[in-house]
Queue: 2 jobs
Job 1
Amino acid sequence: MSLRHALLGLLAEEPASGYDLLGMFQRSLAHVWPATQSQLYTELTKLAAADLITVVAEGARGRKEYAITEAGHAELVRWLLNPERGTPHRSPELLRVFFLHQAGAPAARRYLELWGERFDGYHAELTALLESTDWDNTTRYGGFGRLTLEWGLRYAEMNREWAKWAVGHVPPDGPDRPDAD
Amino acid sequence: MSLRHALLGLLAEEPASGYDLLGMFQRSLAHVWPATQSQLYTELTKLAAADLITVVAEGARGRKEYAITEAGHAELVRWLLNPERGTPHRSPELLRVFFLHQAGAPAARRYLELWGERFDGYHAELTALLESTDWDNTTRYGGFGRLTLEWGLRYAEMNREWAKWAVGHVPPDGPDRPDAD
DNA sequence: TGCCACATGTAACGCGTTACATGATTTA
DNA sequence: TAAATCATGTAACGCGTTACATGTGGCA
């Protein structure tokens, strides 16, 4: 149930419409919590029904501007300070590594090299974001966006380093299959 | 659709029953791709219907032992070598960081300290796993389990370091709320 | 006037979770 | 003979994805 809290978090800064929020998701939250248009509108309706947000203005083209309520802000803070036990970590890419010997050592090495390259790209993307933003002037999100960006940078670096290490540690293929059990 | 490939991967090593596979998931795959009992049996039925696996023996208590078919192995290798564009990264914990200034700087620092401690624990858990396993003797998964474990260790370290850094970079609370917009 | 951007909504489907439901075999 | 373990299955629910569906307002 994190989408609802993401919406509350955004609306805690300033009122916005579903369309506005969609833009914010695509621009600033895309790396942390992607969401689709359809999901977003559905959740806004639910949040309004639960009185965590309310419509504060209606504009042209059916535009509805939402604002967070007191109850909504209370819920946001409650969620922030009560980290329920995390969702288990699931990574299809890492799962592949687990079974990669089925593909043979050369293919495995290629896979890991590709891994490194993908994170090169990701790192570059984030670096561009870091440099294109004036972090001093960003009162919005109080600079915490910088912390999450730093996490992303370190994550990318870690993956690059790991991939490099892993390529060198791919076990050799067995003669055929040991099957010694 | 990764659960099905995880099952194919395990069955590529040796035939097993749903119950056996459940044990393997809990023991060795828990950190990479957790799965529940109910999910697993459902997926096995589907895999059998698709002829990617077959029942090779029936034992006591309705036990059904499955083995991978040729089609199943082909599908496994296909999946291994075709990394479709990754599921977007979603982390409720990181999402919290994004909005943490709503909770105030002291609470934010406490949150980040807790983050570091949790990864201390995780790192210790993985280290224990590393030391309790004889990696030379592990033909099963051809040593690739070691690569994923290494990833986990580095991930834990990265998070510890980041949390330490982040605690020192928590922006001060605004006087009240700038609201200058 | 025609297109683009704005703006909101619904329906179908898949996967993961929790809970329920049942029963056989071994072993203490 | 009672409990633990082995063993399989179904149902309800939530969230995320894709696709469909519709309509208005501004501007060139």
Job 2
Amino acid sequence: MNVDDAPQRLRTLPSWLIGQLAVQARHAVDAELEPLGVRRSQYSLLASVEQFGPSSQVELSERSGLDRSDVVRWVDDLVGRGWLRRAPDPQDRRRNVISITARGRTTLRALDTRVSNAQRSLLATLSDAQQEQLIRLLRKALALG
Amino acid sequence: MNVDDAPQRLRTLPSWLIGQLAVQARHAVDAELEPLGVRRSQYSLLASVEQFGPSSQVELSERSGLDRSDVVRWVDDLVGRGWLRRAPDPQDRRRNVISITARGRTTLRALDTRVSNAQRSLLATLSDAQQEQLIRLLRKALALG
DNA sequence: CCTATTTCAGATGGACTGAGATAC
DNA sequence: CGTATCTCAGTCAATCTGAAATAG
């Protein structure tokens, strides 16, 4: 699609502009991750476990924004790749404790580089100051301190 | 999901912030349109036909951002509702000419109000000046004059 | 008995692909 | 002939729902 061909109604609509940029953002990140065979959900999960340490799957769901049932499937996958570990919680046997492996950390650092490249290509038309400004406004709109 | 619980890596990532706001944007618009039984795709199509006048389906696809095959299905639907009209193009019989009906125009105006409400709730945490600023930056990022 | 967590099976809507039919 | 348009059938990943199994 060519954004310039869209009708005025849409080209001036904040929700539409945000949606279009989100499409480009997804594509930029996916293009960087695809050669490594990694999806955005997997990056979110690795980042969540890495930052907060061993977590239950409900916690992972809240932090990553993934649905509880999708966390099940992706953790399955990431355990299979040797990037996460899943063990029953001895304190509360309803829960699993998900933790990151050494190889998971290494992978995450590689992904960080890729994801960071995607940001640059996504925001290439903005100056550094404008990028900062955009980030500030997005965070404010999301009520993120 | 609660955005505040996300890891630092994501909370500072432009593509992630954009994606999160896009989710909220979708929900805000959907919530406004749902009582009328209308989807965003339908609004995009009505807006495209209204602005540019009678169009082929390929043109509609380029302008609305919908895939050619989805245009087929949505035009079917909108014709069924009496909001669009589909006729063979006498100049080029491969094409259809899609045009908006009087009832379609009326509907579109009602949708405009709804969609506009959604923008206000989406950007409620921003001042008017900040909303303008955000729109400017989004358009620049999308390389939209 | 009620609630929380994990898991599964499947529904849903959106974006996309490939091929056939028709017309240029 | 090759190409453009419309149409259909169907895949695909992402999101979400409901209910079962287990444990607190």
